[in-house]
Amino acid sequence: TEEEMKKRVTEIKAKFGEELFIPGHHYQKDEVVEFADSTGDSLQLAQAAAYTTATYIVFCGVHFMAETADILTKKDQVVILPDMRAGCSMADMADIYQTERAWVKLLNLFGDTMLPLTYVNSTAAIKAFCGERGGATVTSSNAHKMVEWAFTKKERVLFLPDQHLGRNTAYDLGVPLEEMGVWNPITDTLEYEGELDNVKVILWKGHCSVHEKFTIENIEHLRSTKPDMNIIVHPECTWEVVQMSDDSGSTKKIIETIENAPSGSKWAIGTEMNLVNRIIQQHPDKEIISLNPNMCPCLTMNRIDLPHLLWALESIENGDIINQISVEDYIAKQAIAALDKMLANA
Ligand code: 13P
Ligand code: SF4
């Protein structure tokens, strides 16, 4: 039963003490967050991974986050992902072969004028690709800082794999839409309007299937039915949605904005369902809803549940570890160069 499972998780946590560390992303289910030693957004969890001395890190999040944790921890620390099916559809939209092919074609178009940046929501191989070329990883919390930094290094930026975070960030920094192109990894072509030479930001054609579900129709409906609602969305939402909202920001910024908002204020939030539900529970003094009334879960985040968490913990107890995430040394070495720049600018 659920009670028995919770009891076992508590027992194993007590038994291993400081030897065991359970980071949990804000999008995880309540039944998992309950046992997390640290909760946070991608950046906070990467920082926590870089800091922990625990031998076993049971990562409650998705695959790219566990890879990042493995890269940032020492060799003798073991990172476990409780369910290997917990991937990220956005990270899967850029594979290393497509990226290498794109780079060759882009070098032909633009010469050595580009710096590659990748959202942490990407495979370790893509992070290594960026690190090898002087680029960096970014998170939604420090994307502005990192894109600004990239422009001090090169004339152009290739932004992988989320076109929306890239577009929203570059636009905020003053790059007009006409100066952004979109790299289509299926047709291997650059989509742009106007002069090729004017393209300053090359956006990879990837997206988050959860955040794309918040639409301008949702906003129009809300503006006409509840005009006094403040709308805040994650920058993985489309440019149009971000422009029509009152505010946008990383998971951390959304949480802090609602925390600091006055009692009685009204909010519609455009981000993942588990987090929105938790914010609603934590702020009974405010009127909070999801911007999309259908609520948008991240199905892969949700694959981590109490039975999988217990399964991972029992594997440590039995000495027969399951689902260890282990990034190959030659990839980790290059990826760390990209991650270190992000952490230095956190
Ligand atoms: P952050 O945790 O950086 O806000 O990213 C959101 C997300 O989609 C994580 O997968
Ligand atoms: Fe990936 Fe989107 Fe899920 Fe985050 S919310 S893990 S970006 S699919």
Automatic annotation (TrEMBL):
Binding annotation for [4Fe-4S] cluster: C88, C208, C298
Co-factor: note: Binds 1 [4Fe-4S] cluster per subunit.
Main location: cytoplasm
Residues holding iminosuccinate: H25, S42, Y119, V120, N121, S140, H234, P235, E236, T251
Keywords associated with the record: 4Fe-4S, Cytoplasm, Iron, Iron-sulfur, Metal-binding, Pyridine nucleotide biosynthesis, Transferase
Classification via Pfam families: NadA
GO-annotated molecular function: transferase activity
Membership in a protein family: Belongs to the quinolinate synthase family. Type 3 subfamily.
PANTHER family documented for this protein: QUINOLINATE SYNTHASE, CHLOROPLASTIC, QUINOLINATE SYNTHETASE A
Protein name in the entry: Quinolinate synthase
Organism: Sutcliffiella rhizosphaerae
